[in-house]
């Protein structure tokens, strides 16, 4: 997975494809390995983190019926937290675009998902102008 930091988009794509391929035969092992890698490399640049997260998403989607319930629950929670962190990091530069996307998750009469609220809160904390109330 260290090769995800390679600047060549073809190498990055090969890593993504390899993780997805391995995830077809051993989904829980790949998901756990990706999770552990992301935990050990918490300073991994976000574009490279996204490659691993996308591979995890694909493995989960393609193998959801095969996953143990406890594994799926833990991986999904971790994946959602990591995805929220990516949005907050991107929001430090492209706040309008990220806010536009997050706000689409707010639907009248429906409570928003926990991670939508957490992302919204973390965006406001990381961007001082959002935290300031304006008349």
UniProtKB/TrEMBL annotation:
InterPro entries reported for this sequence: Maestro_heat-like_prot (IPR045206), MROH2B-like_N_HEAT (IPR056282)
Coiled coil: none
Gene Ontology CC terms: cytoplasm
Domain MROH2B-like N-terminal HEAT-repeats, chain residue ranges per copy: 19-127
Pfam families: HEAT_MROH2B_1st
PANTHER family for the chain: MAESTRO HEAT-LIKE REPEAT-CONTAINING PROTEIN FAMILY MEMBER 1 (PTHR23120:SF44), MAESTRO-RELATED HEAT DOMAIN-CONTAINING (PTHR23120)
Name of protein: MROH1 protein
Species in which this protein is naturally found: Mesembrinibis cayennensis
């Amino acid at each position: 997975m260290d090769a995800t930091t390679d600047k060549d988009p073809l190498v990055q794509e090969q890593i993504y494809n390899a993780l997805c391929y391995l995830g077809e035969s051993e989904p829980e092992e790949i998901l756990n390995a990706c999770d552990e890698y992301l935990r050990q490399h918490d300073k991994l640049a976000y574009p490279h983190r996204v490659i691993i997260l996308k591979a995890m998403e694909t493995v989960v989607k393609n193998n959801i019926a095969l996953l143990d319930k406890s594994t799926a629950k833990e991986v999904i929670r971790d994946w959602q937290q990591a995805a929220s962190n990516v949005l907050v990091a991107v929001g430090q530069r492209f706040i309008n675009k990220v806010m536009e996307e997050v706000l689409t998750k707010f639907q009248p009469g429906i409570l928003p998902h926990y991670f939508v609220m957490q992302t919204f809160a973390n965006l406001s904390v990381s961007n001082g102008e959002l935290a300031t109330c304006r008349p």
